[in-house]
């Protein structure tokens, strides 16, 4: 036998509290009764009152509570084998980890806001495989396509501006890495989501996007940042916050390049979304686009399907509750003689 919701057993502590409360109530009740008459007159003045029945009722209440906990724990025994098919699509998230993603025109900064949005997206996935690519001046597959969302979550948390050693922003290389990361997945089940400020410094993203389209891959882009931009804050060698400067000593200001990101999405038949504080865009892409796409069978396996047996403790609890309700605290004379015997 196993319990599908064993955590509910923590409520057993409430049984002790309930039992203590019922006992204190019973003691208080006896004190009130004895306050009105002497103990040797109690049998005559409180004729028919049965303290035993009061105790029985309390025991029944405790039993009902205990059986209810057992029912909520969902006891299971006996099983049958069922074939479980997992259907989904392959989604590769491509996240910009260049220093420009430290810009705080989106709070707390562009990179951290992206990671928060991806965590929200994970809650919507149901069987879809998801992979993660980090890019700056180069691109690396951080997490291959997987349905292990916990493992993906760990890879996501480790993302930082030091994930890719080579500085800069090369969107072309990121798209190439995403395309090569797909295995033999049919074209209609592939999707790439690129999250970046679009501040591309090398390569030709549009030509690479055309090659992706030829392979049937749609690229969805999410632009994060503002058109006005802001100076990039970094941690200096001393640990203090300072602004990033170029080789000539000028402060570097990062702006959102929406035009490039719109062209990439348009070239492959995807869509572009500008991230904002309220609506980042990943949820919008998934709900309006990806969730409506055809799913393929990713895996099929046999699983044990256990039979639910909560009906037994629940039925017994209902029966005891009915007995407790019908059981009075007084007895007739004939029943009283039988109890006294």
Which features characterize this protein?
Rossmann fold; 23% strand; 341 residues; 6-stranded mixed β-sheet; alpha/beta; 2 domains
Task: Give the topology, please.
Layout: E1 2-3, H1 12-36, H2 42-45, H3 51-72, E2 75-88, E3 90-96, H4 110-122, E4 129-135, E5 139-146, H5 149-157, H6 171-181, E6 190-196, H7 205-214, E7 218-223, E8 230-231, E9 233-235, E10 241-243, E11 253-254, H8 258-268, E12 272-274, H9 282-288, E13 296-308, H10 311-326, H11 333-340
Helix pairs in contact: 1-3, 3-10, 4-5, 6-7, 7-8
Structure described in brief:
By secondary structure, the chain is an alpha/beta fold.
Structure overview:
It contains 11 helices and 13 strands. With 341 residues, the protein is α/β, with parallel strands linked by helices. It has 2 domains: 2-74 and 310-340, no CATH class; 85-299, von Willebrand factor, type A domain (Rossmann fold, 3-Layer(aba) Sandwich), CATH 3.40.50.410. It has a 6-stranded mixed β-sheet with strand order 5-4-3-6-7-12, with helices on both faces. A hairpin with a 3-residue loop joins strand 4 and strand 5. Helix 4 packs antiparallel against helix 5 and helix 6 runs parallel beside helix 7 (205-214). The longest helix has 25 residues, at 12-36. The two termini are 43 Å apart.
Q: Tell me the β content.
A: 15-25%
Parts with pLDDT < 50 across at least 5 consecutive residues: 336-341
For the largest beta-sheet, the strand count, sense and barrel status come to:
6 strands, mixed
Question: What count of helical segments does DSSP give?
Answer: 11
Mean pLDDT: 82
The SSE string, one letter per element, is EHHHEEHEEHHEHEEEEEHEHEHH
Number of beta-strand segments: 13
Number of domains: 2
Radius of gyration: 34 Å
* Neighbour order of strands in the largest sheet: 5-4-3-6-7-12
Cα separation of the termini: 43 Å
* CATH architecture call of the largest domain: 3-Layer(aba) Sandwich
- Outline: elongated
Helix content: 25-40%
């Amino acid at each position: 036998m196993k319990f599908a919701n064993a955590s509910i057993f923590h409520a057993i502590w409430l049984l002790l509290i309930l039992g203590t409360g019922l006992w204190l109530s019973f003691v208080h009740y006896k004190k009130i009764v004895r306050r009105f008459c002497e103990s040797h007159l109690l049998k005559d003045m409180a004729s028919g009152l049965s303290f035993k029945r009061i105790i029985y009722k309390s025991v029944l209440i405790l039993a009902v509570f205990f059986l209810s906990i057992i029912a909520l724990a969902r006891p299971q025994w006996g099983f049958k084998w069922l074939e479980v098919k997992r259907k989904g699509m392959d989604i590769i998230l491509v996240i910009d980890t260049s220093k420009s993603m430290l810009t705080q025109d989106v709070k707390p900064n562009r990179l951290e806001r992206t990671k928060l949005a991806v965590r929200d997206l994970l809650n919507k996935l149901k069987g879809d495989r998801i992979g993660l690519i980090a890019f700056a001046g180069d691109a690396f597959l951080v997490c291959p396509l997987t349905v292990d969302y916990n493992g993906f979550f760990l890879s996501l948390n480790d993302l930082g501006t030091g994930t890719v050693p080579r500085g800069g922003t090369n969107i072309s290389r990121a798209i190439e890495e995403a395309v090569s990361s797909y295995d033999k997945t049919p074209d209609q089940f592939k999707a790439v989501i690129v999250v970046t400020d679009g501040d591309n410094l090398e390569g030709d993203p549009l030509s690479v996007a055309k090659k992706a389209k030829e392979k049937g891959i749609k690229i969805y882009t999410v632009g994060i940042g503002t058109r006005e931009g802001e100076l990039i804050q970094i941690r200096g060698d001393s640990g203090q916050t300072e602004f990033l400067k170029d080789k000539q000593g000028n402060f570097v200001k990062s702006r959102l390049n929406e035009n490039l990101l719109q062209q990439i999405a348009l070239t492959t038949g995807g869509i572009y979304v500008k991230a904002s504080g309220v609506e980042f865009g990943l949820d919008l892409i998934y709900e309006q686009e990806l969730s409506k796409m055809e799913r393929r069978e990713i895996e099929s396996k046999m699983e044990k399907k256990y039979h639910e047996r909560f009906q037994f403790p629940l039925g017994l609890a209902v029966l005891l509750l009915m007995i407790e309700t019908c059981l009075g605290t007084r007895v007739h004379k004939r029943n009283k003689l039988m109890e006294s015997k």
